[in-house]
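Regression test case RT-17, inverse folding.

Input:
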């Protein structure tokens, strides 16, 4: 039964990718916490911060990688488990490139978790086109930490390795639509510069608080600094400490002209 469910989910994902390509639209599927599957207007699939198998908010069907269909590119914002946990395996399963902070990819390579030929090389302010010239990824600043925790299978001991500096991603699609995945971040003044320089259409922002900006600071950043067309809150409610509420974010956005989109994990939104 589990295999059948996964096959049905995978078939649905593939049909959905095809439909999105035909419609020339962008589909953003939230998988809980900071994990997203983005299907581009041309049918390419980009997965960001895939923490799936042990994520309590990820729908059961998507805990099997097959349910995502063919993944063309994996992006990671930083080294914490709730952002990178499934990324190397997902990349390897699809023979896809994985782009992440340079120090994190170097660590994953050194530990034998990600082959060097699949570890994308770039840094903040860099631009790359790993899945075709008409899709650009831009690496931008985030304000957070990024250590990689690893249980050594030989010694059984927990180790902490360099994870590089945390980043955000600007994903520029075939039709010019731009998505800004902020990753985990605190508030910083250059959010205004990012907004002015890249002019993102959609911002995916954390609102949980404690480890990141909360709903009120998120509203300030989006309303006064980034100024996109759409905003989608993430990284809240997974654990009690991530207490930010999307309704508080939406209230803070009233009168801004920014459309707030609040899906449930497993919901897809079309732009």
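Golden output:
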């Amino acid at each position: 039964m589990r295999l059948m469910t996964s096959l049905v989910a995978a078939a649905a994902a593939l049909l959905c990718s095809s439909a999105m390509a035909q419609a020339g639209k962008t589909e953003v599927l939230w998988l809980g916490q900071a994990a997203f599957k983005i299907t581009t207007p041309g049918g390419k699939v980009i997965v960001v911060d895939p923490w799936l198998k042990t994520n309590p908010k990820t729908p059961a069907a998507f805990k099997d990688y097959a349910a995502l269909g063919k993944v063309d590119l994996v992006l990671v914002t930083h080294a914490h488990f709730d952002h990178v946990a499934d990324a190397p395996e997902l990349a390897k399963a699809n023979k896809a490139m994985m782009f992440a902070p340079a120090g994190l990819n170097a660590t994953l390579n050194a530990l034998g978790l990600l082959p060097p030929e699949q570890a994308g090389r770039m840094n903040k302010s860099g631009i790359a086109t790993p899945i075709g010239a008409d899709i650009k990824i831009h690496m931008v600043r985030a304000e957070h930490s990024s250590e990689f925790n690893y249980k050594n299978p030989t010694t059984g001991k927990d180790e902490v390795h360099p994870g590089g500096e945390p980043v955000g991603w600007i994903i520029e699609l075939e039709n010019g639509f731009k998505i800004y995945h902020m990753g985990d971040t605190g508030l910083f003044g250059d959010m205004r510069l990012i907004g002015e320089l890249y002019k993102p259409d959609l911002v995916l922002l954390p609102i949980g608080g404690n480890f990141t900006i909360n709903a009120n600071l998120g509203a300030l950043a989006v309303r006064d600094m980034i100024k996109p067309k759409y905003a989608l809150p993430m990284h809240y409610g997974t654990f009690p400490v991530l207490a930010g509420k999307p309704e508080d974010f939406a209230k803070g956005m009233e009168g801004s002209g920014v459309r707030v989109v609040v899906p449930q994990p497993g919901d897809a939104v079309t732009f």
